[in-house]
Write a structure and sequence with these properties.
The complex is a heterodimer. By secondary structure, chain A is mostly beta strands. Chain A has no helices and ten strands. In chain A, strands 2, 4, 5, 8, 9 and 10 form a six-stranded mixed sheet that branches. A four-stranded antiparallel sheet of chain A has the order 1-3-7-6, with no helix packed on it. Classes of the chains: A mainly beta, B mainly beta.
Chain lengths: ~120, ~110
């Protein structure tokens, strides 16, 4: 597609429920990242996918978080048993190359509110 | 621990004022420095990608400089307009693909 598409744009869920956030990156971008921004904080790295390599999951805050990327394209971030501290804007970004010449293209984000 | 710091956290200026913000980043293992503009309810948009010490980039009324030896970058906006109101993020790459973002500088431009 022309840009990075994320869905849903807003999600309100009850504490303890599971949620799935979806990201459709730009076609041809081999690298895909998930970040989140909690209120008043910077962007926090969550996970990175590059081509067919094993993802870098070092930013996932707990084992309740998981992500997959199917067919080198669409990615799903799953949060199980959501907690109030999971409330944040979850941003997906894809990038052409390594970041030395091009910046990220971000999606518009999913605002997750856990009540 | 890598830390990217931006100052000030927020800034209120009048239309027509020129302004600048600072991004400080670890100078070791430097690979690239990005600046993004993030308007409310929109996606962050890449402004500049900077790689060389002494780099200066310009886009319209916005420009940026880079000092990789001392680990800082400045973003300048000349003649601020209300449409410049946004959060300006910088991000440091160390070549390991785990980009570290600062918390941003929130700019408010009053007409």
């Amino acid at each position: 597609g022309a840009g990075v598409s994320q869905s849903p744009s807003n999600k309100v869920t009850e504490k303890g429920k599971d949620v799935e956030l979806r990201c459709d990156p730009i076609s041809g971008h081999t690298a895909l990242y998930w970040y989140r921004q909690s209120l008043g904080q910077g962007l926090e790295f969550l996970i990175y996918f590059q081509g067919n390599s094993a993802p870098d999951k070092s930013g996932l805050p707990s084992d309740r978080f998981s992500a997959e990327r199917t067919g080198g394209s669409v990615s799903t971030l799953t949060i199980q048993r959501t907690q109030q501290e999971d409330s944040a804007v979850y941003l997906c970004a894809s990038i052409l190359g390594t970041g030395r010449f091009y910046g990220y293209t971000f999606g518009s984000g999913t605002r997750l509110t856990v009540v | 621990i890598l830390n990217v710091e931006q100052s000030p956290q927020s800034l209120h200026v009048q239309e027509g004022d020129s302004t600048n913000f600072t991004c400080s980043f670890p100078s070791s293992n430097f690979y690239a420095l990005h600046w993004y503009r993030w308007e409310t309810a929109k996606s962050p948009e890449a402004l500049f990608v900077m790689t060389l010490n002494g780099d200066e980039k310009k886009k319209g009324r916005i420009s940026a400089t880079l000092n990789t030896k001392e680990g800082y970058s400045y973003l300048y906006i000349k003649g601020s307009q209300p449409e410049d109101s946004a959060t300006y993020l910088c991000a440091s790459h160390t070549g390991g693909f785990k980009t570290i973002f600062g918390a941003g500088t929130r700019l408010f431009v009053k007409a």
